[in-house]
Amino acid sequence: MAPPVEGGDAALLPEFPRGPLDAYRARASFSWKELALFTEGEDMLRFKKTIFSALENDPLFARSAGADLSLEKYRELNFLRCKRIFEYDFLSIEDMFKSPLKVPALIQCLGMYDSSLAVKYLLHSLVFGSAVYSSGSERHLTYIQKIFSMEIFGCFALTELSHGSNTKAIRTTAHYDPATKEFIIHSPDFEAAKFWVGNMGKTATHAVVFAKLHVPGDQCHGLHSFIVQIRDPKTLLPMPGVMVGDMGKKLGQNGLDNGFAMFHKVRVPRQSLLNRMGDVTPEGTYVSPFKDVRQRFGVSLGGLSSGRVSILSLAVVNLKLALAIALRFSATRRQFGPTEEEEIAVLEYPMQQCRLLPYLAAAYALDYFSKSLFLDLVEFQRGLASGDRSARQAELGREIHALASASKPLASWTAQQGIQECREACGGHGYLAMNRLGVLRDDNDPNCTYEGDNNVLLQQTSNYLLGLLAHRVQDGACFRSPLKSVDFLDAYPSILDQKFEVSSVADCLDSAVALAAYKWLVCYLLRETYQKLNQEKRSGSSDFEARNNCQVSHGRPLALAFLELTVVQRFHEHVHQPCVPPSLRAVLGRLSALYALWSLSRHAALLYRAERRRSCPGRRDRSS
Amino acid sequence: MAPPVEGGDAALLPEFPRGPLDAYRARASFSWKELALFTEGEDMLRFKKTIFSALENDPLFARSAGADLSLEKYRELNFLRCKRIFEYDFLSIEDMFKSPLKVPALIQCLGMYDSSLAVKYLLHSLVFGSAVYSSGSERHLTYIQKIFSMEIFGCFALTELSHGSNTKAIRTTAHYDPATKEFIIHSPDFEAAKFWVGNMGKTATHAVVFAKLHVPGDQCHGLHSFIVQIRDPKTLLPMPGVMVGDMGKKLGQNGLDNGFAMFHKVRVPRQSLLNRMGDVTPEGTYVSPFKDVRQRFGVSLGGLSSGRVSILSLAVVNLKLALAIALRFSATRRQFGPTEEEEIAVLEYPMQQCRLLPYLAAAYALDYFSKSLFLDLVEFQRGLASGDRSARQAELGREIHALASASKPLASWTAQQGIQECREACGGHGYLAMNRLGVLRDDNDPNCTYEGDNNVLLQQTSNYLLGLLAHRVQDGACFRSPLKSVDFLDAYPSILDQKFEVSSVADCLDSAVALAAYKWLVCYLLRETYQKLNQEKRSGSSDFEARNNCQVSHGRPLALAFLELTVVQRFHEHVHQPCVPPSLRAVLGRLSALYALWSLSRHAALLYRAERRRSCPGRRDRSS
Q1: Global model pTM greater than 0.90
Q2: Do B251 and A438 touch (CB under 8 A)?
């Protein structure tokens, strides 16, 4: 295990080396060390420092300047680095349980070094590991030890060539054979090949494979997951019946070996079924501990969220890295000025500030949100592990699913757009590969796609909100959720009667103002989407058509605005806690207001249109 | 010279191979061949086909599947391909004069093959070549022949390490020495090194170098350009006093060798000065044919436009390529559907249509605009070549400068965002390198930066419009420009009194409707920006501060809206000409309306706010 960093604040937060940034740093209205301590806490700073020090001092992590690694070499190196991370044992399983936030912190530190490494580590330990842990039972615990010692190396095989988003259409099958007490895993044709699976290309020995479970009598019980050995751990040669390979070069994350696999009647023991949601008896009878289908669905949805929450935190890392590069460049690059002799730093231009500073605020707000959502997920997973089958646990699963499904899009897009803005804000220098902005953009890009296409995922969130409103309208149910993210909606009729009565720009610099406007906006969008959906259905559209026709102009902005509100709400509360050091209150308050107002301003057309409709209720807007 | 393609329409526009796209193609409401003939014309189709056939049949242009070319190898190959393009002699100098549109057509064809090749060719033949041709005089014509035979290979060295956008701060010097009748080209320090110069890294033998011209008595006459030999054409070794090298890996366009150079008191003959704008007599006296500084400035601005207009057309190519990939994928990829059994093509989803089809319309509108602006530029350059020193010629230079300065940002951003949307719209498959969307994005990216950062350039356009309004307000001058792009502004008081009175969505499907709204919007933004600028100045801001404070929320949207209006106007007129085949009128009209409405909709918040201010004139919006 890597030795923890010793010493006081000076060792933990040493002064920056002197240089051209000194002038700006001297002008700060707050102490950056105090901000770092407040944002991270000393224990976490020490943990991150331990990781960074280990990587800095290990030649395996040295970057060879200017080297253009071949695909093969980069993938090999990334695997060796991943293995080394396990050897460092930065985080024991016990520590994970004690300080769960160290899990995303470790992933973020690896992501700061290289996305490919972070994702490789994440896929093995958290996605593969979590799937075994959360979907399996006692009999699968033996795998957990092997995962952490890297005796086996894992991947998560859900997506197929022809079906990614539509998991119900997954076509790999698992037929149970009572004679041998085995499942037969089979890919009916190449379109059903597992595809895009991270770690599968070169290095995985085991896969959690999703397949349709059939028991004798040809009854299908839907998608279940199985642990399948795909390679010999000693030779890395494919197991009999498994055709597995690498997908080749991607736009980014080329250290990660994405792969494909086809299974030709591969037999695995009955115990390979990850059986928390349902099991097959030795004789071939399907049994499930969940009586209520809705409950079972809620629990399984929560399980899908962990990947999305991890992506959220990886996107935040990419945004942070790009901003540090672009802001430092902008503070030192001088161009034009009030006179021909005197040039000013480009950061002094209102244009440059408007391009970059909102993303800085977004990085803070989303960073805090990613941690808070991770803790919510931990609560859910603890319930899952302890066998909690309460209605609250299922509701929590649904709420986290709704939040995670919109937060991955919001964070990955914010990062993607922010990195592009940083790239352009650095001019030509931003286009030089060594300045890393291209790698960050390319490595962040798949965050928009994997674990669910952003636009498809947003529909999950809008459907969640629409379902709650339908429940309220039809059954008089209250808006109530375990994390209280929807509770304010209960007052939607009175919120919609509120008016924006702030009289000066100065007053808007409290994020409470934007927050109130956001609540109004979400209530408005929810009601409009609900009405539009019902109108579509009344005019003869099927449910499928009605939802598709509502999504672009209603469901999508609803889901995004709801999630932005949640992010703003949590960050607002965080920076207004009594424990915030007095010297940080002003700057944190400004960050919170900037993020809130900037996000809200992107809905300005909607707000104006809504106001217009209210002031002229008889005159519907023509665009409706 | 490559043999032209013979034969009739069938050879020119052969049927597509049969495949999964047939069903959609069969549903088209128009003949794609007719559309191709209308858009390009038979002569141009034949010209493009000649180029594509030559490249297809030449092994030098074969792509080795899956090969990861090293930087060195790729740059070498790109140079050989560039040389081969000259050998094919697709376009003689005479042809260029006869059919000027073949120039951008050739660049576009090369861009379809590889941006690095198009830019390398463009930089040598058009940027370097044009600079010599337009800024030089009789005595420089000898270079032109050598450029086309590739006896010399050129680059355009304006940008320095510390100064790109701010050309006035360029610090390379050229001191005239009457004793030897030479200029001494010198880089005072490394911050004044020429930087980012395309072709300079490995291959250029000559550079057009911008330097501050000094004559004896230490009088500085500002920036002038010189032809300087930087390498021996036989050995490619640097000339004495020249330190030149390659800048290394970039985010994209890695076939292009961008370089740097420092000059240590390099002596070049007096005749190296490109002397159209000003010359130095053998004795060392500075002379200029232009009496009026404003006129001289107008002429030199027009010269800057050719690079921007070429970038506009390269951006359009990138957008076209990405759209073809994404739309074809969307038409064949099936995911989800009205029932679990029946999946539909993702192109059927309103979401996918809203993501992709506006960019398709943008590609058509911008493609047409790029050709029309190129022809305007040709008119300007002919004036330049014939020594036209009329006020009209100078006005034309200014107008083209204003249009080109905003069209490069609009096209490069539209392409960048469109390619990203295409990438995401193809899901995971869009992230596979072989599907090319990454290369297109990376190769398009520098279009946002080179020849002027997009945001900086937009200020040129808003300044142009503000200058015209000031002229009108202060001197009663009319809004009149040679290309008539600003003439409508003359009626701005009455345009601002107009109201949007269209009563149905169907009526909006004529781009004339969006066009009228755009005119109103540009008048509104121009007046608001002018007022804001004067208000800033009255409250004590310097001109520099006032412009910076106005740019984000006023000048920038003004410049973009003005250019969008110009694009919409030209495309609207183009598709409503009497010569449009009747069978194409509907589809072209829809494309025109879609582009216009989509672009306009991005200003929706502004339109609502403006309406609100008009209906409540006493109650100013709080955000102002």
Answers
A1: yes
A2: yes
